[in-house]
Automatic annotation (TrEMBL):
The name this protein goes by in its record: Assimilatory nitrate reductase
Example GO molecular function: oxidoreductase activity
Keywords: Oxidoreductase
Superkingdom in the source lineage: Bacteria
Location of the Molybdopterin oxidoreductase domain: 8-118
Length: 233
C-alpha cells in the first residue's frame, strides 16, 4: 500500500528529455519504446541520453538506436511472447495472449520490475505472480475516488476482483466500465457533461498554419508513409 498518491502529473515525453538534457533528471528507465527513433529531434535525444548518469533500457532487440546508449540493458519479451492488455484510441481494451515461449534470459516487463523492486527492498509491494493480478489492482485503483481524483473518465473497477480464469477469457470491452455497469461504454459524453469544472466542453481557438506553396517550376511534393518499425510517433 503506497503511503500517498502523486497529486500532480509527471513530465510528458518531450519535457522529460528536455529535463534529462538539462541535468534535472539524472536516471531514466526506457521500456517499450525507442525514443531516439520515435521522438522529434533525434540528435537532442542522443545528447540527453549521453549526458544522463544512468540509462536503463528494457528491449527485445539486441541492437537499437536507444539501446546503444544504455548503461544497462534488460532483455524483455515481445509481442507473441507476452500476455497483457492493450487499449486502442476508441477505448477498447483487448487481451493480448502469448503463443511463443520466451527465449533465453528474457522476461516480461512486469517481471523485470518486480525483480528490480525486490532487490531494492520493495519485494513485498511487488509480489505479483501474474499479469492478471496486476490488471486486477489496476482496475481497483481506477475506481479510487477522492476530492481531487473523482472527476475522470477512466474507470474499469468492474474488474477489481477478476480471477485468473476470467482474465484469460477477457473479451474486448470499452471503458469506462464501473462496478455498477454490466457492459462497456460505447460513447463518452452522450449526456452532454464533460470532465471540466463547469461540465462544459472547452474549445481552443488557434490560428491556422497554411502549407507552403510549391513553386510552379520544379515542383516538389513530399508524401510520408509508415513502415512496421516506424510509425511517426
Amino acid at each position: 500500500q503506497a503511503p500517498n498518491l502523486a497529486e500532480n502529473e509527471g513530465l510528458k515525453a518531450v519535457d522529460l528529455f528536455d529535463a534529462i538534457h538539462s541535468g534535472k533528471v539524472k536516471a531514466v528507465w526506457i521500456m517499450g519504446t525507442n525514443p531516439v527513433v520515435s521522438m522529434p529531434n533525434a540528435n537532442k535525444i542522443k545528447e540527453a541520453l549521453n549526458k544522463c548518469d544512468m540509462v536503463v533500457v528494457s528491449e527485445c532487440n539486441a541492437d537499437t538506436d536507444t539501446a546503444r546508449l544504455a548503461n544497462v540493458i534488460f532483455p524483455s519479451s515481445t509481442w507473441g511472447e507476452k500476455q497483457g492488455t492493450v487499449t486502442n484510441s476508441e477505448r477498447t481494451i483487448s487481451l493480448q495472449r502469448g503463443f511463443l515461449p520466451i527465449p533465453g534470459e528474457a522476461k516480461n516487463d512486469w517481471e523485470i520490475i518486480c525483480e528490480f523492486a525486490k532487490n531494492m527492498g520493495y519485494g513485498e509491494a511487488f509480489n505479483y505472480a501474474s499479469a492478471a493480478e496486476i490488471f486486477a489492482e489496476h482496475a481497483a485503483l481506477s475506481g479510487f475516488k477522492s476530492e481531487k481524483f473523482s472527476n475522470r473518465a477512466f474507470n474499469i473497477s468492474k474488474y477489481a476482483n477478476i480471477t485468473a480464469k476470467e482474465y484469460n477469457a477477457l473479451k474486448p470491452v470499452q471503458w469506462p466500465l464501473k462496478d455498477t455497469q454490466d457492459t462497456g461504454t460505447k460513447r463518452l459524453f452522450s449526456d452532454g457533461k464533460f470532465f471540466t469544472d463547469n461540465q462544459k466542453a472547452k474549445f481552443a481557438v488557434i490560428e491556422a498554419r497554411l502549407p507552403e506553396v510549391s513553386p510552379k517550376k520544379n515542383q516538389f511534393i513530399m508524401n510520408t508513409g509508415r513502415i512496421r518499425d516506424q510509425w511517426h510517433t
